[in-house]
Structure formats: C-alpha cells, structure tokens
Design brief:
The structure holds four protein chains of four kinds. By secondary structure, chain A is mostly helical. In chain A, about 65% of the residues lie in helices and about 0% in strands. Chain A has a domain of about 220 residues. Chain A has a two-stranded antiparallel ribbon with strand order 1-2. Chain C has a two-stranded antiparallel ribbon with strand order 1-2. Chain C is globular, with a radius of gyration of 19 Å. The chains are: A mainly alpha, B alpha/beta, C mainly alpha, D alpha/beta.
C-alpha cells in the first residue's frame, strides 16, 4: 500500500516536478474532515500507531493458525530485512544488494558475544545490532556510488566480510558456530516480533518526519535537495545506519534461533535477494507493503517447498518475473489503485529517459 | 488526511487475508500429513535436496532411505517393541533445495505439523546443523546420517542426536597418517578446502604426522568453490612431495585429478576423499586411467561387509538396490539405507513410544548391531565410533579400476581382498 | 621463479576467458542499464549445450559455438521483447531489471537441473598438455583462451567498424543525446541484447573446460565475476573488459602461489572491485563518473 | 511563404504536472524563430514536444502540413527536423564519431561527404577530429553540436539554448555562425533562448511565460513593446523548474 502521498500537510512541495510520485502528492489534495469520528490530527496518530501495533499482534496469534515456529520466526526475520531494504531503497533509492553482510555481521556479533563473553540473550541482540552498525560505518564510503554500482559494491563488501568470517579461527569460521540455548522457541518468536515492531515504528517515523521528507527529496533529485539546504550525506548515512542496525538485529535473532550454523548460512546472498524481492513485491515507500510482500511470498515459498518440490525454482522464478513485469508497483498498488497511476505513466514513450520524467532512474 | 485510516484498514485486511491464506495452505498440508500419520504406521520425517549444492549427495541418500522403507514394508512392516507388533513405515519428505533456512522450517514442519515419530537428517553438516538445533529444542530424536560436523557432538551429553554412518571428520584420516608413516614418506603436501569437513581432516592428519616427526612441506587451504587447480598443482609440485593429500568435496577432488591428468603431472601418492564414496562419478568425470593408483577412504560398497545381524549384507543390498547396474550404487545409497536400519533397530528395542524411549532402543543395541557399514556404536553425545574407514587404492581392473584396501589389514568381518600399496605409484 | 612465470601465464589464460564472459554482460549493462543477473546462467546453459553435443551426439563440444549462436540470437530476441520494453518503462529500470533477471536466473537453473540433473558434468580434455614457455598447461585451458581472443576481436570490430556499432557506443555513452541525434535506440538495444546473450552462451561452451566442470548452480558465481570484470574495465569499453578480465585472472592466479594467500583467493575479485569503484568509480578506462 | 512547422493547442507536462497550456506556434519556412522565456517558462518542453521526446497530452504537431504526433524522435530527425540539445554532443565519443552519429541512417557515402563538408565549414573541428568531444572547449563543443545537427542538411533545426554557458564574445560568434549557417544550408531555425543577444538572428519572436504563449510577432514589434519585457522576465512564471533546466553539473 503505497502511502507515498503521506507527506504531512505542512510539507513544502517536492523539489522538482519530475518525480512522478511527488507529482501525485501535490496533485491530489487530501480531503479534510472526520473519519471514524476522529479529527485529522487524531487520524494521523491512528495511522501511525495501528500498523506498528496491529501487525505484531496479528502475527503473535499466527502460531495458533500454523504452528511452525521456525517458519514463522524466519518469516518475521525477513519482514525486518524487507523493512530495512524499504528504508534504504524506498526512501533513498539505494539498493543494497549486499545487505546480507549486515545480517551476517549481526548473527556473528551476537553469537560470539554469547559464546565468548557469555552475555545474556538481550545483550547479545544489542551487540548484534551494533556490530552491523559498525560494519555500516566501515563501508559507508560506498554511499558515494549510485545505482547498480552501489548494489554490486555492497555485494562485494558482503562477500569480503563473509570470507573473513569463514576463514578466521576466532570467528569459528571453519568449524561452524554452535550456540547454547539462549531463548526458547516461543520466546525467540516473541522477540523477533518485538524487533519487527521496532522496524515498523522506525519506518513510520521516517515516513512521517522531516527526515523522511529529506530522504525522498534526495531520492528524487540529490542536487536540488542539496540546494534546498538538505545535508545529503548526513541524511543518507543516517538511513544507512538505521537500516544496518535493523539487519543486525534480524541476524542476531536468527542466529539465536538457528543455534548451529556455518558462515555461509547468514552470509548467503539469496537472503539479500529475497529481502529485496519481498520488499518490492509488497511495495516500497510504504509501511505495510514489505510486511505483506514477505508474508505472501515467503508463505508461498514454504508452500511450494512442501507441495511441489520438483518445480520449485521454476515456479518461483516465473512468479518473480511475472510480478516484476506486470505488477511493478508491488502488491500494494493493487490495494490502493496505484495500478491506475501506473497505467497512466505507461503512456510515456520508450525514450522516456530523455524527458526526465523517470524519477530515480540511474542517478538517484 | 481523512482517507488515511481507511488505507491502513485495507493494508491490515490484506495482511489478515495473507495469514488466512497461509492457514488454508497449512490446513491442506496438514491434511496430507495426517493421512501419513494415521494409526498403524510409523512416520519417518526427512528432507532431501533436489537442486543446489548438495543435490548430488542428498538424492542418493534419500533413495537409500526409501529403499529401506520399501524393504521393511514388503516384510509386513517393522517390529515396534512398545506396541508388540509390526507397523508399516511411511516416509514424509520435503525438498529443502540445499538451503539451510528452508531446511530449518521444514524440519519444524515435520515435527509440528506432521508429528513424525523420528527425524532423519539431510546429507552433510550444513543441512544437518539446523536439524541438530531443532532436535535439541523440541526434544525430538534425530538420526543424523552424514552430518559429522565437529561442533554437533561437543556440548556434553545429548540424547536426541544419533550419527548413523560416519565417524566425525577429525578421526577419519588416522589410517591415512599411519599408512604414510608406514610408507616412510617424509615430504607430505596437504591441500584442503575451507569447510568444517576438510579442515578438520587436514588439522587431524597434520597432528598425527607431527607426532611422528613429520612436518608437512605444504599445508594450504583454498575456498571450497575453487575450480582452477593449475597454479596450485604447480606450487605443490615445486615442493617435491612424497605424498599429496587433496581434501575437498567431490567437485574439488574431480577438478584436482583432472588438472593432474591435463598437465600430465605425476605424484608418488595422491589421496582424495570422495573417490571411495562416488567411484562411478569419478569414472565418468575423470576417467579410469587418470584415477588409477589414487588413494581414498574405503567405504561401502568398496568395503564389502556381509556379516550382518540386521537388514541386508552389502552384496545383497547392491544386487537388490540397483538390479543390473551394481556399479551405480554409491556410499550415500548405503548410508541412507543404514540410517533406516538404525531407525528399525531403535524401534525394535524401544522401551516406550516417547522420544527417549526410542533412544533407549539405540542404547540397547549399541555396539551389538552389525550392519553393512560395520559395527554400530555411538557415544553419549551421539557420535559414531564403530564404523571403519580404511585406506583403499584404485588399481587397474579390466577397462576400469578397482579399489583395494591397503591399510589396515582386513578386519575380521570384512570380506575384501587386501593389497599392498603400490608406492610410489607407477606412471600412467 | 618458474612457479611465478607459470602463474602469470595461467592468469593471462584465465583472464582472457573472464574477459570473454564479461563482454556480453558489458553490452547489456552498458546499453540498457539492465542488471542481468541471469548472465552466468546463460553462460552455463551454453556449457550444457557443448556437453550435450559431446556426450549425446558424440561430436566435438566446440561445435556448440556455431550451433548455439543462432539459438542464442533467437532466445535473446524473445526474452528482449518479453521483458525489456516493460522494464524500460519502469520507474527504476536498473532495479526492476535486477529482479526480473533474478527470476529468469532461477528459471534457467531449474530448467538445467530438470534436464541435466544436479550433478557436476565434465568434458574430456581435447588433448594432452600444451607446452607454453617451457611449462605444461592443460590443452582445454589453452584452447579456451585462444578462442576468447577472436571472439573479443569480433566484438571490437562490431563496435568500432560498423554503423550499428557506432550507434551502440553512442547509446552507451549518452542515450539522451543519441536519441536526439536520430539513433533508433530500440534497434540498437535489440541487437545488443541478442549479441550479449550469444556471447554468453558462446563463452559458456568453454566453461566446462575452464572450470573443470559445470553444474546448474555454477552460474551465480560467474555472474558476479562478470560484473567485477566489466566494472573494473569500465562499462561500454570492450578493451577495458579484456583488461579487467586479465587483472582478475592474474590476481587470482598469483594469490594461489603465495603461501598465506591461497585461502583468500576467492576474495581477490571482490577486493579488486571495491578498490576500483572507490578509487576510480568509472573503472580503469571510463570517462563518465557514476557518482550520485 | 509556406508553413514548415505548426504546433496546435499543445498541452503537456511531466508526470501529472502540466507545463504547457494550449500553445500555438507557426513557423514559416525560411523564417528564424526565437522562442523566449525565463527558466521554467516551458521553452524546452515545447521543443521536446516538437521533437517527440515528450508526448503531447493533447494538441498536434504538423510538419509540412502533415501531423507527426505518432512519429518517434528518430523518425523526426531522419525526416529533416534536426535537434541540437543544450548538451549537444556525446562527450565520450570522438569529434568524428559524433558527426557520424549525427549521420545515423544516411548512406555511408553521404555521411562521408557530409563530414568532408563539415571540415571545410568548421576547420577547428577537423583539427580535433580524433579528440573526445568531452575534451573540447565550450565554444568548440557548441560548434560540434551545430555541425552534428547539420550533417543531414535538415530543413528545420530546433536548438535548445545554443548560447548557454558561452562568454559574451563567444555568444556573438555563435550569432555570426548561425547567420552563416542559415544562409549556407537554407535551414529554418527554431531557437529557444534566454539570452537576448541571440535575438539578433531571429526574424520572429515567440514569448512563453508560465507555459502559455504571450507575445508572438516580428522582431521589430517585439523590440518596441515594453509590456512584453515583463512577460519575458518571467514575472508570472511558476516555481516549477523542468528537469532539463537543472544545473549542468547534475
């Protein structure tokens, strides 16, 4: 559900008209008045609080529907990752192909804290998040790049990190990580839900704040944003750290759940790819889009794995191709009727790159 | 702003719908599973990988387990001691696509949705690791077929994991080290892949050799994904070694042997671990002439053990498993079948239908069970101790090659022609 | 010293092959900004074609090269029309293409597994060792490297000696201006796409030789190597791609001769990529800087 | 005088933001038209619509009396409507390759002849023929852009800010060059400009303000009308800045 028209009413108009999404923001005046007997101001709080609270609560009862905690916890971990991708890609236009590096850093940070320092589970989680943020600091020069270069450079960085972890004895690289039981399965699930709630809260906060507005301005046109007085580097770096820390937390809770793993597992590139696909499938620049994308696609993944294993990859691959081509705005676009907007945009000629109407294309 | 809460509602509604869909799916699969879990059957849950890195090894292992179930059912089922009757066996299997994260949720699926009686792990340490965790957490008995990772068996006593086929990788190379000492090799080169399995062997062999006063002249790790061995072979050649040990996965072993073949490089002693497990794959991918005189670990079906007190002997197994094509039977087929035999023995001596009751069945037969892999004996962490891994050498045999055990001398229960190691290897 | 020389020659041989793998991707990415994550899988598909010819039809696997080219052109044409027009209309073509081609990569991997099974397949070496500078190299490697050279030369001729090649370079350098000059971008793109796919499958027929064997999952690693090679050598510059390939080949080969570097071999291309994008984001031969 | 190009009721914009409101322009063959307007007045947008680089929401573009709405940009370029964008050249290609790109679609012999003619008309380009266009000075770049647009000997040359980024002296030279080119190539010019010096070359002036047409008449009349100046200096221009007028360092 793209709530990309979620600019607060007092927001200035977008910096340039060639951001089509921005065009929608200004092109449609939000009607004022009451809904559910609430004033606009209260309504705003409803839409801030409801997704953050209702989503974890709904998922909290999911084990009563489908009691497979390993599956559900992994799914929630993916929701966190998809929201992290959403923050970075949806709001700044940076596609972190090597996002899994933060996940792996979080997993190993937390695990080493448990195994070597014997810290409690919650401390380990925090250490996991911090480890990822520190890695984020180390690789922050990559933010100078853009587009596919950024995507591939982060991928390379995550692979370098993976080989360091896999080769070094102090990370138990070759023998694999083995954790004692830190939390019970249900406890792990609840903690994963709390991390997810945090991720959702952060996304809501970013969406509705001036910070989020600056990020979107940067996404649509970094030069104009800088001229409008936005500190481009600082805003990007902040989003980068938040996103890294979220992935680190996700990695930490994943490590605690999995308990026995090798470096290749938390650094598996498919984790990045899935997080990106889930986020885009649901619809980025929204709060619930990545949640829905993950729940639908990951359930499907599990279902295909159980029911029709022979053609698993084939079905999944075709599904992804079809969705990306025919539902480019994500599932959310179906819900909110953005599909109509998309159709209108389609009428642009193929040479659209020249008319400058493609926001974020190439040089986000 | 007023339309906003409406859109939130739509979003949440979509989420509820998605969860509902999930519930429907799970109900569907649970139905399918409950059909399996009906009374009068023992359900064995397992995973296999039809694609991905482990498919080559996982599929034969799964085939062996299926063969076991078919055998048991053709005899009216297996004896279940607590019920005092025979029960049919059903295998519930899912495809993990070689992906450990998928494996995690599928192992859980087998326990929480299908309520299987026991779990059998997928091939190898990477896909077994998540099963170990779940087995401990959910107190579910796991038969670990080939997951011999060192970290699985170190955390004190664990009644829920039973390694059925191989000793942990650190003890594998003991006979190799002894053979090298016996052959009076001085300059040993060790090239290993950086993974748990190979690294543990390399370190162990280095330790055994050092104890005998031999320091390897070459001791290097390479990534498991390594496929270009040309420069490495030249580096090894430069150290002028008496013996070369290449410790990798099948793809590494094949690439290494092909490199020797393609450059005409000759070493006096070459060992690769997987030749003994997958001889037909090596015949196809390297060719018999280039394989000749290579050393490897001897495992069934190279190691012929017919003196058994459960299931089929090796010769009978090979004949029945692949009628007419005995050469295609490999170790992993045997390992899958052997895991079935361990399950069978456990139920035959179980004290109750609880997980610990079934584990007690293993304790009851521990050290007494003779299978086509040898003596079945586990310690209290579940680690396998009983089975053998002698060293074999490929020698020319007709158009192909035959594997002959060269060290140690034949144990009593092994019916197998011994041979003296041909060292140094003749030039091909 | 002998070992060092061996590593240099070996690195060059592999480098030419890496350049060959990269060049098709360079066309696709350079012209249309399509992040073709299925590139490596197309390469492996070509490898299986060669394998089929050798094993099923009992003819030299190198016949796969002439046979695969028309097939690849047709396949490229179909995939282009199925995906690219829609992708080009997407709000962010790079990202959308990344996802679409990830899906295609999954489909290709699945098809290869269904047709050829998951096992690694190898091809018999086409002959005994070949002596170069007094040392022996596998014939398969030498032949593959030798075939890479004319392939790269052909692409060079296409880009620098034909009119559509000039149009292709114009689109790579500045699509807006090329359109304004009357270049038919769609035609350029179709050909670039088809030729890119053909280069991938042609290079693929050599992979079973070079890599010792192929399996359905070999492709993803090759995709990454190919991206590394083309970014190091600058987008749109075929000569740069060759140099990028040589750099990756040499660095990997030399690291294998160093006592404590062997285990870090796999990291070499990634480190090279990071250094290049951070120090000189346009690649070694690029003029345009792609910074935000 | 026949009408070469006619824009009827042109309405368009970017995304959902409308930039042009019902603009009508008629360009007779042989008459140089200067399109004036401040930043954001819609000049470049109108030119893009003429070239087919931006589709019209409604309205029509006629060339030689025939509607060309459905022609894609390359067809328009190949049918005698040349376009010289603000950038004008492909920086990474050599001077000669730029000219050859300008001749895309022509027969090889024609391109060769056209390039030979260019060397005579613009000797400076011949000296730099192997250098990348990106290494040229600002004035040389504009010259190359002009030469590239002229390769096909178009009937109509649409130019977006030919004087942008040039020093006053160079602007003056540019005006001279344009005069020379107009007479030598018998080409009708449509220039969008902010710089009034360039007006010297024009015979007819069209002023755009806020996406609507203001003044439209002969140069002399434009000069005598003070009220037009207000429009020209963009007092009623909207705050929106079309993307093509972003700073060049983007």
């Amino acid at each position: 559900m793209p709530e990309d028209d979620a600019t607060p009413a007092d927001a200035p108009p977008p910096p340039t008209p060639h951001d089509a999404a921005g065009a929608d923001r200004t092109g449609r005046a939000a009607p004022s008045g009451r809904i559910w007997g609430l004033r606009a101001r209260e309504g705003r709080w409803v839409r801030r609080v409801v997704p953050v609270v209702a989503t974890p609560v709904l998922l909290f009862f999911a084990p009563h529907v489908y009691n497979n905690l390993a599956f559900l916890t992994t799914m929630v971990v993916y929701v966190v990752l998809a929201e992290g991708v959403n923050l970075l890609y949806g709001f700044t236009g940076y596609l972190p192909f090597g996002y899994v590096g933060f996940f792996g850093a979080g997993a190993y940070g937390a695990s080493l804290a448990v195994v070597d320092w014997h810290v409690t589970g919650l401390v380990a989680l925090v250490i996991g998040g911090l480890t990822a943020a520190i890695i984020g600091l180390v690789v922050s020069p990559l933010l100078r790049l853009s587009g596919a270069y950024f995507a591939l450079a982060t991928l390379a960085a995550s692979q370098v990190l993976y080989y360091v972890v896999a080769n070094e004895p102090w990370t138990y690289g070759e023998s694999g990580m083995s954790l004692p039981e830190v939390f019970g399965a249900t406890e792990t699930y609840v903690i994963a839900l709390v991390i997810m709630a945090l991720a959702l809260a952060v996304t809501v906060a970013v969406r509705d704040s001036r910070f989020g507005l600056s990020l979107r301005a940067i996404r649509s046109d970094p030069v104009s944003a800088a001229m409008a007085g936005i500190d481009v580097v600082r805003a990007r770096t902040a989003a980068w750290f938040i996103s890294a820390a979220l992935a680190g937390l996700a990695g930490a809770i994943w490590a605690i759940m999995t308990a026995a793993f090798y470096a290749e597992n938390p650094f598996d590139l498919t984790i990045s790819v899935y997080a990106i696909v889930f986020a885009l499938f649901g619809g980025v620049r929204t709060v619930l889009g990545p949640v829905i994308g993950t729940v639908v696609l990951y359930s499907l993944y599990q279902y295909i794995g159980i029911s029709n294993p022979q053609y698993f990859e084939l079905v999944y691959g075709l599904l992804i191709v079809g969705l990306a081509l025919f539902l480019p705005g994500g599932l959310g676009s179906l819900v909110t009727g953005s599909a109509a907007r998309w159709r209108r945009r389609r009428t642009r000629p193929v040479t659209g790159a020249l008319d400058g109407a493609a926001p974020g294309g190439g040089t986000p | 702003m007023a339309h906003r809460p409406y859109r939130i509602t739509t979003g949440l509604a979509a989420l509820v719908l998605a969860l509902g869909g999930l519930a429907t799916l799970s109900a569907g699969s649970a139905d399918a599973a409950s059909a399996h879990a009906k009374a009068g059957t023992i359900t064995v849950g397992t995973l296999y990988a039809s694609t991905g890195a482990y498919a080559t090894s996982s599929m034969p292992e799964y085939a062996g387990l299926q063969f076991w179930a078919k055998q048991v059912d053709s005899h009216g089922g297996m004896y279940v001691a607590p019920l005092r009757r025979k029960e049919k066996v059903k295998i519930v299997a899912y495809n993990d696509q070689s992906d450990p994260a998928t494996a995690t949720s599928l192992y859980d699926q087998l326990i929480s949705q299908n309520h299987v009686n026991v779990l059998v792990a997928d091939f190898g340490s990477v896909l077994t690791a998540p099963a170990i965790t779940i087995a401990k957490d959910q107190k579910q008995l796991l038969f670990d077929v080939t997951g011999s990772g060192t970290s699985f068996f170190t955390s004190g006593s664990n009644p829920y994991v039973v390694l059925t086929s191989l000793p942990v990788s650190a003890v594998w190379p003991k006979p190799v080290a002894k053979l090298l000492i016996q052959l009076k090799t001085k300059r040993v080169a060790i090239l290993y892949c950086q993974n748990d399995f190979d690294q543990a062997q390399a370190t162990a062999i280095q330790g055994f050799l050092k104890a005998a006063g031999i320091t390897p002249v070459y001791f290097q790790g390479v990534p498991t994904t390594q496929s270009d061995y040309s420069t490495l072979v030249q580096s090894i050649k430069a150290t002028n070694p008496d013996a070369v040990l290449e410790l990798g996965y099948p793809n590494n072993d094949i690439a290494f042997l092909n490199e020797l073949k393609a450059t005409g490089t000759h070493f006096k002693f070459v060992l690769t671990p997987f030749l003994g497990q997958l001889p037909s794959l090596f015949t196809q991918d390297v060719g018999a002439p280039a394989v000749n005189y290579t050393y490897t670990y001897a495992v069934p079906p190279t190691l012929v053990i017919n003196h058994v007190n459960i299931g089929l002997g090796l010769t009978a197994f090979v004949r029945q498993f692949a009628p007419g094509k005995p050469s295609t039977v490999n170790f992993l087929d045997v390992a899958g079948y052997n895991a079935g035999l361990a399950v069978q023995a456990a139920f035959a001596h179980a004290t109750s239908m609880s997980q610990l009751g079934i584990r007690a069945g293993i304790t009851a037969v521990n050290g007494k069970l003779q299978t086509l892999e040898g003596t079945f004996k586990v310690d209290n962490t579940g680690e396998q101790l009983g089975e053998l891994l002698p060293v074999a050498q490929a020698v020319p045999h007709g158009k192909g090659f035959a594997l002959k055990i060269v060290y140690p001398a034949t144990p009593a229960q092994v019916k197998m022609v011994n041979a003296k190691a041909k060292y140094p290897a003749p030039t091909k | 010293m002998q070992l060092f020389e061996y590593a240099i020659v070996n690195g060059v041989l592999f480098g030419l092959f890496y350049g060959f793998i990269g060049i098709g991707l360079n066309l696709l990415f350079g012209v249309m900004r399509l992040v073709n994550l299925a590139h490596g899988d197309l390469v492996v598909f070509g490898g299986y074609l060669g394998y089929s010819l050798a094993v099923d039809a009992h003819i030299n696997s190198l016949w796969a090269i002439p046979l695969s080219i028309p097939a690849a052109l047709v396949f490229g044409f179909l995939v282009y029309h199925a995906t690219v027009p829609r992708l080009r209309r997407a709000v962010d073509t790079e990202t959308a293409s990344l996802i679409v081609f990830f899906g295609i990569s999954q489909v290709l991997e699945a098809l290869m597994t269904m047709i050829y099974g998951a096992n690694q397949v190898t091809l018999p070496s086409p002959g005994g060792p070949v002596s170069l500078f007094g040392q022996d190299y596998p014939a398969s490697v030498v032949i593959s490297a030798a075939l890479s050279v004319p392939a790269l030369a052909l692409l060079y001729l296409y880009l620098y000696r034909t009119r559509i090649g000039l149009a292709t370079r114009a689109v790579m350098a500045d699509e807006d201006e090329a359109v304004a000059s009357g270049v038919r971008v769609r035609r350029v793109a179709v050909w670039a796409f088809m030729i890119g796919v053909a280069f991938a499958t042609t290079a693929g027929t050599l992979t079973a030789f070079m890599l010792g064997g192929i399996n359905p999952t070999t492709g993803s690693g090759l995709t990454i190597t190919a991206f590394t090679v083309i970014i190091i050598g600058s987008l749109g510059n075929p000569l740069g791609t060759v140099v990028g390939g040589l750099l990756v080949g040499l660095a990997s080969s030399l690291s294998l001769t160093q006592a404590y570097a062997t285990e870090w071999t796999a990291v070499v291309p990634y480190v090279l990529l990071l250094v290049v994008v951070l120090v000189r984001p346009s690649g070694l031969f690029g003029a345009t800087v792609r910074r935000a | 005088m026949t009408t070469l190009l006619e824009v009827r009721h042109a309405t368009t914009g970017y995304g959902t933001i409308q930039v042009l409101w019902d603009v009508n322009v008629t360009i007779p063959e042989g008459v140089t038209v200067g399109l004036l307007g401040a930043n954001g007045s819609g000049k470049s947008t109108l030119l893009r619509a003429v070239m087919g680089l931006l589709p019209l929401w409604s309205g029509e573009v006629l060339f030689d009396g025939e509607t060309i709405n459905h022609w894609d940009p390359s067809r328009r370029v190949r049918s005698s409507i040349a376009y010289m964008s603000e950038k004008g050249v492909i920086a990474a290609l050599s001077v000669e390759d730029n000219l050859r790109v300008g001749g895309t679609g022509l027969a090889a012999r024609e391109v060769k002849a056209a390039i030979a003619r260019t060397w005579d008309d613009f000797p400076i380009l011949r000296e730099r023929r192997r250098s990348p266009a990106g290494s040229l000075s600002g004035g040389q770049r504009k010259t190359l852009a002009l030469a590239k647009a002229l390769i096909r000997q178009p009937r109509l040359l649409v130019m977006d800010e030919p004087s942008a980024g040039l020093s006053p002296i160079l602007v003056h030279e540019m005006v001279e060059t344009l005069r020379r080119v107009r007479d030598q190539y018998f080409v009708t010019l449509l220039l969008a400009e902010q710089n009034s010096t360039v007006l010297d070359v024009a015979q007819q002036i069209v002023v755009l303000a806020g996406g609507r047409k203001g003044f439209d008449g002969p140069l002399d009349e434009f000069r005598s009308r003070t009220d037009v100046a207000a429009q020209f200096f963009g007092l009623s221009a909207p705050p929106d800045v079309p993307s093509n007028e972003r700073p060049a360092n983007d």
